[in-house]
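Mods, move this if it's the wrong board.
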Amino acid sequence: MNKKVSIIVPIYNAQVYLAKNIKSIVNQDYRNLEIILVNDCSTDGSFDICQKFAKQDSRIKLVDKKINEGEDFARFTGIEHATGEYLVFLDADDWFISNAISFLVKTIEDKDVDIVYASNIRVYSTRLNIKEHRYLSPQYCDRVIKGEEKDELYISYFGVNIVPVTMWGNIYKKDLFNLSLERSKLKFGADLALSMQLYRRAKSFYMSQTPVLYYRWGGITAVFQPNLLESCKKLYSIKMANAEALNFEKAKLTATIELCNCLASHILQLATYYSRRPQQNIADLEKEFANTVYQNFTSICDHAYVKADGLRLACAQRNAEAAYNIACAMVRKPKNRLRIVVKKLCSSILKFIPI
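Not the wrong board. Structure tokens:
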């Protein structure tokens, strides 16, 4: 168990967390590492921190990109420089448990699989409130998944929370990356788009409930992100193309409900952050609802999960005024702070939907 592991960290303006991140990698008890730090034109002190660590540890490869192209391209740049037999990814603001890599390598070799998905410990806020995260479907954990069962669990990439869809904290055989991979160029969700491709290439995987890293929770729903909905729509198109190619009909349904939830979250944020311009918001939503990406919403209007929530149903019916008014009523309730409402809609988007 001494194969080289390439650890890829895309970095952009992460100086607040970066030293902790890199220390957690260089101090791993598994020593045969290739540590690839990809600086994506940071404007803070991130590059200087990387240089400092690179001078101290010869296992570090510092790649300094000359054009800022986003996390997706930074991740692919790291893949191009990787020479290890296994690949592991880590976000710049997260950090590993000290035996993370030895656990991942031992597991992928003992179980003889292409991918190992591991658990994480969520860190909430700068006060380091932590909570160990367990997967929603323990019946799929701690055993090898392959064949028809693996094919069925591809539904996870269409809004059903079973298999992790992010890249960080997992270990992959390098062979999965040998053929060309499509770059999604998404601002949000690019790791999911890449993970989808790797999942389809893999013959088997193992999902462990053992945590290997600390993951900083929160971000995209904590403040208004005007580009998030655009990424959701692009990701939806990618998912629908995949579902169509595989004739995966139930995936089309769950992906459409997921997009409906994303739209509902967007409207809640509009009602919170731009509440003083209601008529403009409604007019903007009417234009948004006219987008052909929502044409499949007619297929979910009678779904029990959609009908159980007024905002979801108004979105599915593409009724801009009704959806906005419902969102305004929700955020005005004293106990319905935005973070609570958004969490209700998006944290476990489809865990109640039968598949």
